[in-house]
Write a structure and sequence with these properties.
Shape: globular
Strand order of the largest sheet: 1-2-3-7-4-8-9-10-11
Radius of gyration: 20 Å
Number of strands: 11
């Protein structure tokens, strides 16, 4: 990366956000927990020890201290095909809308999956699965996709907390559905507000109260909140995908942007059925190292979005070095499955360098498990993607999902999913 340009951008960002550090020289010294050293000090010597001892230990720490313990997978969930259109996208795809009830016997909330399956394929299609921010109608310009009736974040395409017809297609550039379908992949998405409305009072309208114990009225300090619920919902979408004969349930890439990039990483860490994981601009609580005092911090994210993480995570607001884990260990939980981390040069709030360093620090686990890990040791130049088992790129531009990002995601999937 061109250091002078990086510093210039940092100076601009610093001037716009007083009190936030965007100076690399101000990060300070920190020591990362070793993903290959057990809590008792014993070194992990082989893949068996990682799988049976260290991986469960790290996963339990993230559950209890960061994202919270989620409800177990239900024994049975009901599905219903609401609509099927065989000539979607001008004949490129079959479009399906599927209701997925999130509690047994259709007694509670449901999420509606929107699925595009390429018509030109030789068998079940591999899938890109992710949640969306604005409702299924926002990811496509097709006029007959229903507008969500759920609460949505206030904006110029909303009225009284509900999406309007004007919201149709407003997230289409972030999904690039036609491009993905032409490359032979299906696309599946659901509105994240179906699972947990993304505001501080959203808990009561989320799926979480349906899993309370008798007499319980709120999550315990080590139980799930929004990110845990969204990740759990992605696994329920995968439950459906594995039943659909048009879709290859063994080749599903779970992906997300921003807070949903955090969600994708947590979903992929917990649920080993996801074959590939993609995190785009996920920052603090996602791919970026928490111990770096750069951009968003643990305290800032817990203050701005107290409903995202387990209550226990707030203990580390001003004691981040006491965290028994850091985000490189979240990436390591995905090993040896392929994981791709994408940053944007102007998105300093998400700490692109911290995202890269987390990927680099996860490398020893991947290598222990017999993969090439991350193929570089230094942060690559802008627009120089790394396609090893841990993939990474940084592009020009801001916090967003672009056509350039999708080109790399698809190239990465072509390289790694085809081998499964």
């Amino acid at each position: 990366m061109k250091r002078q340009l990086w510093l210039a951008l940092a100076a601009v960002a610093f001037a716009q956000a007083p009190g936030v550090n965007y100076e690399e020289s101000m990060v300070g010294a920190y020591t990362l927990p070793d993903p290959l050293r057990m809590s008792n000090g014993e070194l992990v010597k082989n893949a068996t020890m990682w799988k049976r001892q260290r991986r469960p230990e790290i996963l339990a720490l993230f559950e209890s201290q960061v994202y919270g313990r989620s409800a177990p997978a239900p024994r049975k969930i009901d599905y219903e095909l609401l609509h099927r259109k065989t000539d979607a996208l001008g004949g490129l795809a079959t479009r399906k809308e599927v209701a997925v009830w999130l509690t047994p016997r259709r007694t509670g909330p449901r999420m509606d999956l929107l699925i595009y399956v390429p018509k030109e394929r030789k068998g079940p299609a591999p899938v890109f699965l992710g949640l969306n921010f604005g409702g299924n109608q926002a990811v496509t310009t097709e006029a007959d996709v229903p507008v969500t009736k759920k609460w949505v974040r206030p904006g110029k395409f909303t009225e009284n907390g509900r999406a309007t017809e004007a919201s149709r297609g407003t997230e289409a550039s972030r999904w690039q559905i036609e491009t993905v379908v032409k490359r032979g992949y299906a696309v599946a998405t659901a509105y994240y507000g179906d699972i947990f409305p993304d505001h501080k009072e959203g808990l009561k309208d989320s799926i979480i109260p349906y899993f309370y114990k008798p007499g319980q009225s709120e999550p315990e300090p080590d139980q799930w909140q929004a990110i845990g619920a969204w990740a759990w919902g992605l696994s329920r979408a995968l439950d459906y995908i594995q039943r659909d004969r048009e879709l290859d349930g063994k080749r599903v890439a779970v992906w997300g942007h921003s807070r949903l990039g955090k969600t994708a990483l947590w979903a992929g860490a917990q649920d080993e059925r996801f074959a590939l994981v993609i995190s785009n601009n996920s920052g603090e609580g996602g791919a970026a190292l928490a111990r770096r005092n750069f951009g968003e911090t643990v305290e800032r994210i817990n203050t701005a979005a107290p409903h995202w993480f387990a209550a226990n995570f707030k203990k580390y607001n001003r004691a981040v070095n006491d965290l028994p884990v850091d985000q490189h260990m979240l990436i390591a939980l995905i090993a040896p499955r392929p994981v791709y981390i994408a940053s944007a040069m102007e998105d300093l709030w998400a700490d692109p360098r911290g995202e890269f360093l987390a990927a680099l620090a996860a490398d020893p686990v991947y290598r222990l498990l017999g993969t090439d890990g991350l193929a570089v040791k230094e942060m690559p130049e802008v627009h120089a993607p790394v396609m090893s088992r841990i993939g990474y790129h940084i592009r020009a531009g801001k916090h967003d999902v672009t056509g350039y990002d999708w080109e790399q995601f698809l190239n990465f999937a072509d390289r790694h999913l085809s081998k499964r």
